[in-house]
Amino acid sequence: AVEIVRSAPRTGGYNYLFADAQANQAVAIETTHRYAAVFWDGQSSESPHHLFVPNAVFRADMAFDPQIRDLQLASRGDPKKPGLESPQGSSSYEIRYLQQGQLLLRHLGEIDPEIAMSVARTIAPPSNLHSVVYAYPQMWVANADGKNPAATRVYHPFDVAELFRSS
Fold first, then answer.
1. What DSSP element (H or E) covers 39?
2. Do 15 and 59 meet the contact criterion of CB atoms below 8 Å apart?
3. Are 55 and 41 a contacting pair, CB within 8 Å?
4. pTM for the full predicted model
5. How far apart are CA 28 and CA 82, in angstroms?
6. Which end of the chain is more exposed for a tag (fewer CB within 10 A), N or C?
7. Nearest CA to 39 among 68, 78, 79?
8. Mean pLDDT for each consecutive 10-residue tract of the chain (167 residues)?
9. How distant, in Å, are the alpha carbons of 13, 14, 72 from that of 75?
10. Which three-class secondary structure state does DSSP give residue 83?
């Protein structure tokens, strides 16, 4: 997965998260159009704003790679200023990142799909269009209905293995 993201043509910056239950390993990849920074679970970030959660990777809008963070407008970033700006005070950092990490720490060792949905409901912004909880071979998907954010809606279950067999 890491090599696919690194070598794929990209039009913009995104955060990717991948986990492998058999290998007991997870990775976060922060990207720009031309650059990809890789963070393995258990790896600390150079950023003083990174919240370490054992055996977990998670993200919001803010990048932790200094090269990417220096280009960001999200989470109080300002590419026109030298150095890295603090994300503190932004909802992306305080709620979608920091609160997410605190909830993961609170439920460490007991996270299941229901807890994952509860975390998503707690941190989702009003603009949340899609919310997905994935625990192979099961996946649950919720979509916004125009008035309500996705994470507040009903999560519909899908059997991913069956979806692959039928395609």
1. strand 36-40
2. yes
3. yes
4. 0.86
5. 26
6. C
7. 68
8. 95 90 90 94 80 88 89 89 88 92 95 95 92 92 93 95 84
9. 14, 14, 8
10. coil
